[in-house]
Amino acid sequence: MFPGAQSGPAAAAADWWTDAVIYQIYPRSFSDLDGDGIGDLAGVIDKLGYLELLGVDAIWLSPVMRSPMADHGYDVSDPRDIDPIFGTLAEFDALVAEAHERDIKVTMDLVPNHTSDQHAWFAAALGAGPGSAERARYHFLPGRGENGELPPNNWTSVFGGPAWSRVREADGELGEWYLHLFSPEQPDLNWDNPEVLADLETTMRFWLDRGVDGFRIDVAHGMAKAPGLPDMTEPATVLKHTDDDPRFNNEAVHEIHRRIRAVMDEYPGTANVGEVWVEGNEHFAKYVRPDELHLGFNFRLATVDFEPRAIREAIDESLTAVAAVGAVPTWTLSNHDVEREVTRYAPQVPETDNDDDALRAEENALGIGIARARAMAMIELALPGTVFIYNGAELGLPNVDLPDEVLVDPVWERSGRTERGRDGCRVPMPWEGREAPFGFSTNPDTWLPMPADWDRFTVEQQLEDVYSTLSLYRQAIELRYDRPEFSGPYVEWYGAPEGCLAFRRSGGAICALNATERPVPLPHGEILLVSLPLVDGMLAPNSAVWLV
């Protein structure tokens, strides 16, 4: 076990989060019960039986607070209410109560780095003018240049374009600039202002008092900005940054997390996980020290290729980072910001003028992508620590190449339509039936269109197939908890054929991966589970096995 962890089922213990399987729900895309084409809280309640069947310990809800939806909920106008698109506070309370009855914890997104431009604070800041206490809650500064016509520094937005927008003052003249590391509708808060932290503490207690079991903290490596807001020395790439980027990962952020942790400690059995996009192990470790985040999202497996050396390095680096401070490792293959693993692992399709050949090549590539994603699911579920599953991963869903005219992610427009954004991994879940919207909604006009051929991926279809990806996930999650061999905080690597890897958990479970194009002999042991059927008694290409 990890330092301080207790024994017993993950979901029942006070430290349930140390080896939990947590299922991320992107509410817009999970289940729509009111028929408007957008998922809602009633839809989540309706599918709690499915989540119980899947065997997860907890759910993480992406934002459901009041929002104008410029960034689909990550622009919060009222952090202590539910947006009518998703339902009501009463429905949220019902969700928490019904989930708890099924021994499923409920965690939700916090968005502390910024607010919506329609938040009451920002409206007050615009009205109050330069030098006011209201503007001090954000980063308002005069511009550079002879008439203030240039932004205060050269920072760019993560979504593309400049990170500053200029406001028109009460006298009608152009005036100060405000900082927004994401879209202009998401002004960054000034965390040097004590009012900002005090308000977040109020928000946390509001939800914790309603029974929430924890939070996922958006942009947890943000909030604190480099003193003096110095210029960037290197140009940034859309949706990416480095550890020494002055916009992120500044030392003062750790005191903010200590204050957040102090609130969490008032509610025993709760936990938070931070979205921490840093590369260096020493940087990551700081965020998961005993008095900061309980967990830090580790994105290494969500960004590496299907290649044994890269996978092993990602696992080693992840374990090393948390071991330095006695923290719990986390694993995920995808989320609402990352291309789905099936598509990432699929080989490139060669160009051809023959439509039939192109279709066969695409189907073959999809099949390989699904096989590799199944194998990687067994890798992550065999590892010590906490696993996050993004809704639809358990169905083997691929990314969807949506037409330009339906894209709604702000990245698309902010990047000058050079980056397609994240819509392709956010297409609604297929539940049942033969035609779109496959039981997601009664409304065929869903907020993002669903592919006509997704009947093969529906929950209904896969529950009836013992060899489906959904069945594999169910079996793997059950074995992970039922077998004592999946215990202990360590993994031991041992010899494997070229193009393969194998490790043993300290409890005795063995996991082996064959990333080659040919069958390979199995390690010694009793087989518990394989991601694909054996070939002549050997481990199939692009597959994984568990043994004891």
From TrEMBL:
Keyword NAD part of the UniProt annotation: no
Top-rank taxon, per record: Bacteria
Domain Glycosyl hydrolase family 13 catalytic: start-end pairs: 24-426
The UniProt record lists the keyword Hydrolase: yes
Alphabetized UniProt keyword annotations: Hydrolase
Gene Ontology molecular function terms on file: hydrolase activity
InterPro entries attached to this UniProt entry: GH (IPR017853), GH13_cat_dom (IPR006047), O16G_dom_2 (IPR045857)
Alphabetical list of SUPFAM superfamilies matching this protein: (Trans)glycosidases
Family according to the record: Belongs to the glycosyl hydrolase 13 family.
Stated name of the protein: Glycoside hydrolase family 13 protein
Lineage of the species this protein comes from: Bacteria, Bacillati, Actinomycetota, Actinomycetes, Mycobacteriales
